[in-house]
Amino acid sequence: DTEVTQTPKHLVMGMTNKKSLKCEQHMGHRAMYWYKQKAKKPPELMFVYSYEKLSINESVPSRFSPECPNSSLLNLHLHALQPEDSALYLCASSGGTDTQYFGPGTRLTVL
Amino acid sequence: RKEVEQDPGPFNVPEGATVAFNCTYSNSASQSFFWYRQDCRKEPKLLMSVYSSGNEDGRFTAQLNRASQYISLLIRDSKLSDSATYLCVVNPTSGTYKYIFGTGTRLKVLA
Asked: Smallest CA–CA separation between B78 and chain A, in Å?
């Protein structure tokens, strides 16, 4: 089973709201990723967790806060977002530095 | 020069045609190479990993040319359902989780 799940599928939030995106995988993968994707652009890396520790932060604004509660779960906490943060947020996992598997994404709209 | 470059297309081809995409990469030490397919408003899905010896999966053939630093994807007998964006992904360094995405090549297969 190569499934990565994400919730919610869609999210609409105001600029003062606090919300969280969730991601789960049960493949025993040690690396989990958050990507942001705008229309007609490739995914853009935000964060990487390796063995539950943050290993890459691509200079993402602090209004995005990742959390890895355990090896299967990855959260992205959102606070005081801007309309330009509206995008598809993709979670992915990999066993090592080999194939990445993507979740279906959360389509986020910030009003 | 971009780390990973693809022709954005679109490639408009009739059903049954053979179409080929190339993707060039700048880091000669790159270790892992992948083709992903992404449908509109969906997540990227792994199409093929690309191995040094080349690999084939049904109508799809992937090749790696290390000397010229490019990978290719050949689609034979194109189907309408092959219409999608094809993303080239490179892992430039062994042991890193920082995958580099090409901009994607759009393919439209026409009836």
From this structure: 22
Of all residues in chain A, the one with the smallest CA distance to B95 is: A97
Pick from A4-8, A56-60, B93-97: least confident: B93-97
Strands (E), B26-79: 32-38, 44-50, 55-57, 60-65, 70-75
Q: Interface of chain A against chain B, CB under 8 Å? A: 31, 33, 41-43, 45, 48, 50, 55-56, 88, 90, 94, 97-105, 107
Mean pLDDT, rounded, for B42-62: 93
Q: Which residues of B15-27 are buried (b: 16+ CB within 10 A; e: fewer)?
A: eeeebebbbbbee
Give pLDDT, residue B33: 94
Separation between Cα atoms, residue B92 and residue A38, nearest integer Å? 23
The whole-number pLDDT of residue A1 equals 62
